Amino acid sequence: MGDFPILSLMLLVPLAAALACLFLDAKAARSLALAATLVDFVLGVILWMNYDIGGAQWQFTERVDLFSGFSYALGIDGIALLLIALSVFLMPICIGASWNSIEKRVGEYMAAFLLMETLMIGVFAAQDLFLFYIFFEAGLIPMYLIIGIWGGADRIYASYKFFLYTLLGSVLMLIAMLWMANEVGTTDIPTLMAYDFDPKAQTWLWLAFFASFAVKMPMWPVHTWLPDAHVQAPTAGSVILAGVLLKMGGYGFIRFSLPMFPEASADFAPLVWGLSMAAVVVTSLIALVQHDMKKLIAYSSVAHMGVVTIGLFAFNVQGLEGTMLIMLSHGLVAGALFLAVGVIYDRLHTREIDRYGGLSINMPKYALFFMLFTMASIGLPGTSGFVGEFLSLGGIYQVSSWVALVCTTGIILGAAYMLYLYRRVAFGAQKNADAAAMPDLDTREMLMMVPLTLAVLWMGIYPESFIAPMRADIAALDARLARAKPEGDAEVTMGKEKPAHEDAAHEGAH
Amino acid sequence: MDWSQSLRLIAPEETLSIAGLILLLVAAWGGDKSARLISILAVAALAAAAFLVAPALCGGLMGPDAEAFGGQMRADAFASYAKLLIYISAAASLVVAPAFFDRFKAMRAEYPVLVLFAALGMGIMVSAGDLMSLYIGLEMNSLAAYVLAAFLRTDGRSAEAGLKYFVLGALASGILLFGMSLTYGFTGTTSYEGIRAALDGGLSHGALFGIVFMLAGLAFKVSAVPFHMWTPDVYEGAPTPVTTFFATAPKVAALGLMMRVTLEAFGAQASAWQQIVTFAALASIVVGALGAIGQSNIKRLMAYSSINNVGFILIGLAVATQAGAAAMLFYLAIYVAMSLGGFVAILMLKTSDGEPVEAITDLAGLSRTRPALALALAMIMFSLAGIPPLFGFWGKFVVFQAAVQADMMVLAAIGIAASVIGAFYYLKIVKIMYFDEPADVVKGESDVWHKVILVACCLFISPLGYLLTGWLGSLVKTAASVLFVAV
Question: Is B387's CB within 8 Å of A179's CB?
């Protein structure tokens, strides 16, 4: 690839298309948006193919001194690569999901989505503290418009709540960033990641960053904006919100909080564990009693994010790798589930679970895909959900068996609410005539479901493809955290090698 | 005293006063028919004055070379920067005026002349090096401004605005004058340098009272809380082009003046006024944000927004460092662009028969009836709220950076947290324009000059503005360094 600025190109393609979409009619805007997101997807594939696993930590770096105070610096490591890949993968699907369901102001809608894509890639690719902040914050504007203009009945309240909640979290982070830049004298993220801040200062900095990322994540008890935003947003908005925007919180922890403030992270780990445990148990129970499908999945997202934060603050390789895999898997699965809800919402215009029933009779293909994603959300082995949750919980078990115990109940509860949802929607009698008359998936919907299915199965069966690019980066992070690692209570030791004759005896018993 | 050098240094003021006097004669003989011609000539005079001040800014002129009339006036880089902003704002409020006043048959020949004299007064305010020249500049600006506020003399609201502005402005001038007399009494001099030297040893109670009263008078002029009450009424009542003018040029002048007085004259006793400014800054941010929430008139809302923004600018003053002063100047440039854009957009809100639209509810669904105008207004609102990637963010960024560098973390944290309150009402405007069903009130055609200015402002506050950070950053650094030469 040489010095070809592929990351800038990936930012530029959707941005240019977004501007063009403002001036186009509905049909042309749809096609252009799809074309632009597909081009970006292809660029993402090229990016991955050319990513040198085991090579330099930061690849595809670009740096231009365009501004004073901060610089236009891009570059990715394995972690950012995977999240960028997730974003460009989900984007064409989002455009596809809004193909027919968005009828008014299509040009502006597509422009908002394409702008969103630019900003998401920018967040993951930024190598400058303030460039990151600008991308991170700017995402509020298109999302506010998407929820507010094309959302459901209560969209105004949800859009305000989303905007103000996340803004309040972020501005405190800005002050912390200003302090850090002043202290270290640079805004370069890789330099900051290697800088040792005074542990006393770390406490405050960590809290300021936590205020932002905890809201973005979202962690219990500051998660309340999420169900509102999800329920009111249009389908594609929910997909991108669950799929990528929530990952910005986890990415923030893994890129900033942990490597920059290891001591403070260790000090606050019990707090994070406590909140995560509460999130896993409480929000799972709340999900169990929901009547609204989107709300149910939104609460399940909060519960899954609880497992993400547990893995993050396990301070070991398993936990961190598990975290990354859950984030990727959740991006695919939650996105797919919102898509599945969107499919039937487009037909019946209600998200009330009671209004459906027996869909496996008249929509067998739909029921199959829905089943697969339900299982992936529960974490059935063979699907993407299993790998991440297993690694995450394995990671935390080394540190605190009690936390592991409480969080594992999340899997049981997850199975409960997801299977209960599936039973009510897909099985049973066809009690509603209008639901029974709904047609099965059409080609467009199949085209959205099949890639997601393949990705979910791929990640579940051969996760190595996804772990390989980030292995070195996770190991580096683990080494950085080693000095502050909390003492584990489980004292896990390697098992002794079994004597050979026992094996033979075992064989003989069969 | 070298007269020729002094006269050369105040060339921009000479240009403006001679042009103003000549145009006054033209107005007297030509009558209102010549209003348009006078406007064009006034803009040309402002452009010429801007051309004259530019070299001092680029060359970073400071120290004795910039002193005219024995330090009464200082044509240094700081004054030049502020004057450039003032001239640009004044010229813009001249350009946008005819389209508005023509409808009321009120485009009278005095308007450009008054704006010219106000600009002259403001130029003197920011370049004053002595309490006497300060007061002359201030009153010259204020008297012109009182008349401008009441310019639509048949309109009750306009007359009321003029009267309110005059009564309260006169009171503030009195308070300022009282502070100045105390300062003079306890330091024995009216020159900034002399005051600084006299206060170097310590601060007497009398001088402290002088500082307090002067700051109170100045806080009125910049409409900082708790002296902000006149702002919404005057902004609402005054004709919109005049409001455009009030929201931009006098803010620059009064803040420039405030920086000169506090950092130069009282610079040695920063701790005495820092807490006053800190209070005014935080109170302005909070009151400006809370007050705006309940407003139903967009001009009143913009008035509260300007109070809010002045609060942020004052944070740069509260830190009392060179970085803080530079940040204020940077913020001022962005603020001028945002206010100018905002009020020009308001000027473009007209019904089909040209009646101005001021009720916020009439903006409903503007994004569907007038998408370009709605987009511009939305950009300005997000920019005022300080949401990246719009340039308004950078103004807040530099101000808070200065606060953090000066180790005033608490001030920075409270200030930025309060900015979230402000975001609420900016969002409300966007919500009304984008989310609500169209009210379809705004239908009038816009003047081409309005469009030009709006596009220019929007380009400046768009992310493209960040490309200017290097150039503008070095300019404000030079300008701010002037105030700290004596330190």
Answer: no
